[in-house]
Amino acid sequence: MLKLSISFNRKVERFSMKRLDQVISQEGVSAELELVIKDILVACKDIAYKLGQGELAGILGATEDENIQGETQKMLDVISNDLLKDTLCSNAFVKGVGSEEEDYTIAGHADGKYLVTFDPLDGSSNIDVNLSVGTIFSILEAPEDSRTGDDQNIFLQPGRKQVAAGYVLYGPSTLLVMTTGKGVNLFTLDANVGEFVLTQEQLKITEDTAEFAINMSNQRFWEPEMKEYIDHCLQGEEGPLGKRYNMRWVASMVAEVHRILIRGGIFMYPYDSRDPSKAGKLRLMYEGNPMSMIVEQAGGLSSTGHQCIMDVEPQDIHDRVPVILGSKNEVKKVVAMYGDYITKS
Ligand code: P6P
After folding, report:
1. What is the pTM of this model?
2. 268 shares its domain with 132
3. Whose CA is nearest to atom 1 of ligand 1?
4. CA of 323 to the centre of ligand 1 (A)
């Protein structure tokens, strides 16, 4: 009898959960912006379905093409990109889109109010081994002038100008984490009804951590400051940081950031000397900025080592940026080693 009552309560609780539109309308989001967010999620629900099909859909594996980043495109990279691009460019309130998978920005509606940048399938090297991947999106207001969405210059705004940012994590469950500047909420896709429902609200990142995420195989290419910080972590209790650290690396930024939101941590993809012409591996407009808005809205910090990522003035839609983000007090330790201590409280 007890078992039946528990399962019944869970069902009742689920149907009392707030839907996405109920939450964002309470945040004072304009009807136009709500429609843009909803279209992003229409595409993401289709991406989630296609990912869930795996081998059955015959869409795993790589294409023979490379994107502008010099990365071989997976079939699902292209499919996900096309879904988001087609859905958003047909939305009357979208002036243009920028994608990791597109060389140039693409025009939507000339009088659209919003610009959307996205990484359609971040971490896609994980697809063929069935590990978590995600979609990252960032929304800016379009300048009120005559330039059209295929002019990348209208996108070149610092991350502080974002009006919304989020990601969809395609894991054991499909989760949406999003902010419109009033905190960070977590929604779970209820596949039975095709709705994202609020499952955790106002997420906060713990200020301290003992878990770092970095690709250690690049250690010989890092700047001395990063080498020193990681060396201090590895010295554990006997070292200058005075505690034992754990390490994680999923090679999927969405999964790393989600773990940090839930249990704290610090994620770093620092500058490395493999290609001195590049500021880092990760891209500012559709990885660094949206993840930084989420992390800062959840009480964390996000820095290049020398300035907050959302203060960087972009020069190109595909600008790269060093990324150090996560638990506030740990990010401050790393940034202090670079000498430019963040004075944010
Ligand atoms: P590496 C995925 O390709 C990605 O852009 C991020 O999601 C991830 O954190 C990073 O690159 C992984 O890079 O060099 O470890 O494969």
Report:
1. 0.93
2. no
3. 251
4. 12
